[in-house]
Each structure stands twice: as structure tokens, then as C-alpha cells.
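Supplementary Methods, section 5.1.

A reviewer requested that the exact input to the structure prediction be made available. We therefore reproduce it here, unchanged from the version used in the analyses.
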Amino acid sequence: QVQLQESGPGLVKPSQTLSLTCTVSGGSITTSYYTWSWIRQAPGKGLEWMGVISYDGNTNYSPSLKSRTSISRDTSKNQFSLRLTSVTPEDTAVYYCARTFSPWYWGQGTQVTVSS
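The structure derived from this sequence is encoded cell-by-cell as follows.
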């Protein structure tokens, strides 16, 4: 059973960088052909896909967030991470990491609030 767990600060100040890590257990992030994504849901809004890192380290980002987003990985720790720069209160959301390859697996989500 694959499990994902998000971790990171729950409060970030405007203009700062949001950093989250997803720790994966029960399977390797380098296993072909799995893909691993970050997805968020702002209050009262739908799910928003932010970006993905593939088993081979390739990345792809939402066009609307591409200029502020980067996803990286640490294969030795079986983790992948999200960095979102220049955050504003509009980036307040529950952030999920997920294996976006059938079958999908989701983390429980972590609330991140952007506020001074």
C-alpha cells in the first residue's frame, strides 16, 4: 500500500516562498512509469493541479503557476518537494501530494495559510 505524507509550515508570509515535502512509503518514486504531483484546493474552489515530477525526474508545471513553481526530488529519502515563490493570500489552500498514475494515491493534505 502506497502512502504519501505532506509536511511543511502551515503559515507563510506574503512574498515569501512556500516549501512542502511529500514523503512516500510503500513504493519508490523512481519506479517506471509513475508520476507524482502537487495539487491544491483553495477555500471554496476546485482542485488545481500545480505540477508533476516523473519517475525519471522530468517535470511539468501548470502554465498559470510555472513562473513561481518548482518540483524536485530526493531519491535517497523517497521524497519529492514543492517550492512556490512570491506567495500571496490567494495561495492559501490545502496542498496535496499524489501519485497521479493508476491507481492514484493521495496524501491527507496540509493546510497552508498565507498571511502576515
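The mean pLDDT is 97. These observations are discussed further in the main text.
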